[in-house]
Amino acid sequence: MLLFDLENLQKFYGDFEALKGVTLKVAEGSVGLLGPNGAGKSTLIKTLLGLLRFTKGSATVLGHRLPDDELEVRRAIGYMPENDCYLPYMTAIEYVSFGGELAGMPRSEAFRRAHEVLYYVGLEEARYRKLSGFSTGMKQRVKLAQALVHGPRLVFLDEPTNGLDPQGRDDMLELVLDVKAMGVNVVLSSHLLADVERVCDSVIMMSEGAVVRVATLDELKSGGERLFEIRAKDREDELVGLLRRRGLRVEREGFKLNVYVDEGDDGQDILRCAVEAGIQLRHFVPGELTLEAAFLGIIDEYNQSRGG
């Protein structure tokens, strides 16, 4: 079973093309949805939920064809939105059980399940409190609870750690990992690449409404590049310019430079460049490729190919 099967999916807002012919076949599992602001991530999610009608193309979600099977799709999917979506006078139990009813559950069953899922996310003692008095972390947890109450096969999580402190973020990611371990498919949209790296097995990268790359994390992090971390005694700006003129990708990270070379490269060209310019290197070691590094490189390559 595919999570979704999309063919030339387009979405226009007037003359603006928010989704540009998206074609995807995504297998079950945990998938990260990545891209800069305005990439089309939220539009894609809302389109797959049936909340937005696409303009052209075709879309099947968990075997259900959109827009004909919108209700079946919503029964099979949970959605944790980025922004707060609740009535402040409702209690947590009312909010979560209402979400179950909207997904087609009988009222009594939705109420029973709401108790269970609020306990699961750690809000059992706050279930009769009004949402208006909840902290940011509690609001994120109750949004996750309403996404899970009807037992979905797939959950879309849009920035689930948004606004959380480090401990709250870690707790939320542990919950998501537990949901994943129970066999629920996860699509995680986040600007925090470390969150995606921790939870997901594969990623979809988007930019300007188009899909740039679909790959597993392992493929991305071993994708034909090798990283060297270097520090220069001085003349760092000059060194950056010299390396880039040799066709190397260079990124600043704090007091060090990350230089990316071909996978089989031993870094000697970096050393020769510094020696020829009389620039002393104080630090030169192989580094570990991260999802963030892969993402930045792919998006930069895509933008350059489009003349950006």
Task: Kindly list the characteristics that best describe this protein.
308 residues; single chain; 11 helices; alpha/beta
Compile the SSE list and pairings.
Layout: E1 2-13, E2 16-27, E3 30-34, H1 41-48, E4 56-61, E5 64-66, H2 70-76, E6 77-80, H3 92-102, H4 107-120, H5 136-148, E7 154-158, H6 166-181, E8 185-189, H7 193-199, E9 202-207, E10 210-216, H8 217-221, E11 225-232, H9 236-245, E12 249-253, E13 256-262, H10 268-277, E14 281-286, H11 291-305
Parallel strand pairs: 3-8, 3-9, 6-7, 7-8
Antiparallel strand pairs: 1-2, 1-4, 4-5, 9-10, 11-13, 11-14, 12-13
Helix pairs in contact: 3-4, 3-5, 4-5
Description:
With 308 residues, this protein is α/β, with parallel strands linked by helices. It is 38% helix and 30% strand. The protein has helices at 41-48, 70-76, 92-102, 107-120, 136-148, 166-181, 193-199, 217-221, 236-245, 268-277, 291-305; strands spanning 2-13, 16-27, 30-34, 56-61, 64-66, 77-80, 154-158, 185-189, 202-207, 210-216, 225-232, 249-253, 256-262, 281-286. Helix 3 (92-102) packs across helix 4 and helix 4 (107-120) packs across helix 5. It starts with a strand and ends with a helix.
